Amino acid sequence: MPTDPRPLVVCLGSVVMDHTFHVDEIVQPPSKNRARSYALGAGGLAANASIAVSRLGGHCVFWGRVGDDLNGRPLLDALAAQGVDVSHCRLAPGGRTPVSAVLVDPVGERSIYSYRGDNLGTDPSWLPLQLIDGARAFLCDPRWLEGAACALDHARAKGVPTVIDGEKTETRILLDLIPRVDHAVFSMPGLANYAPGKKPEEALRNALADGCVVAAVTQGEKGTLWMTRQDPTPRRTPAFRVQATNTTGAGDVFHGAYALAIAEGRPIEQVMRFASAAGALRARDGATPDRAMVEELLRAR
Ligand SMILES: Nc1ncnc2c1ncn2[C@@H]1O[C@H](COP(=O)(O)OP(=O)(O)OP(=O)(O)O)[C@@H](O)[C@H]1O
Ligand SMILES: [Mg+2]
User: Pfam family of this protein, just one (predicted)?
Assistant: First the structure.
């Protein structure tokens, strides 16, 4: 059997059907208005990261849950069309697929209403965990605690490096997951949820004390603050200067690129730069870049 030369990255977490409306104005008070354009597509933290892994040249297997409603199958098809292997996803009988209504105004400001889905099942026993054994990295988000916890534990037992997108969620979920992960890469709201009231540096040191080898927080156009267990001095990887048009998903793409760079065995400074370049291009274009675009931006500096 021919072997796939691309490094395998397994991703687990949220997948959402995004209904995006481009509007002239987000009108108040509520009234009947027309949209300029409309797009239907796959979103969700880990799903967006999976698309990034695949577009940047990795082999991505995604594990997530959708309902067997009108949105479920088309959502998985949309991910598959981007090269993501969704063959092990769960189409939950009687489940409701997560969906979002995204309103984007002409200057790129957005308003999002998300429905997290229903009856998708939290039991992770269907996950084919042995697939992780052949992976070079595992990535998850905090949207499915039970699945993330058991896959992180399996990956750790097998020595596969793990990354979490430490996004905004309940504090108890991050307190449960962070000690199980190698690379804790938070968003600013997520870091505040993990260590309420602490300054970023102090919160990141907490994650190292919890057992992480790298702790980082992405700060949009201010770049990424990070430290390692080996050297807990705070360091900053600056953001690439771009004209941002739509920053939705820049963090998700950053995480996918980060996991792929880890899978490729790159040193941490390079991982941060590679992920920053991918995130910046997503913010510039509102679309996930391919490998050549990221390499070009990296060469330009
Ligand atoms: N306007 C921007 N210009 C350049 N790079 C950006 C910009 N916005 C994001 N990035 C890059 O992407 C990374 C992640 O962005 P950010 O911190 O905004 O993620 P986030 O808060 O998780 O948001 P989301 O998940 O909605 O994308 C940043 O650290 C940076 O490297
Ligand atoms: Mg994010």
Answer: PfkB
Q: In angstroms, rounded to a whole number, what is the distance separating the alpha carbons of residues 288 and 279?
A: 8
Ligand 1: distance of its center to the CA of 15 in Å?
Answer: 19
Q: Calculate how far, in angstroms, residue 134's C-alpha sits from the geometric centre of ligand 2.
A: 27
Q: Is pLDDT of 109 > 80?
A: no
Q: What is the CATH number of the domain that holds 264?
A: 3.40.1190.20
User: Near ion ligand 2, which residues have CB within 5 Å?
Assistant: 167, 187, 251
Ligand 1 atom 29 nearest Cα: 218
Distances (CA, A) of 198 to 106, 188, 231, 235, 242: 36, 12, 20, 18, 30
- How many structural domains comprise the chain? 1
Express each pLDDT in 254-275 by its tens digit: 999 999 999 999 999 999 999 9
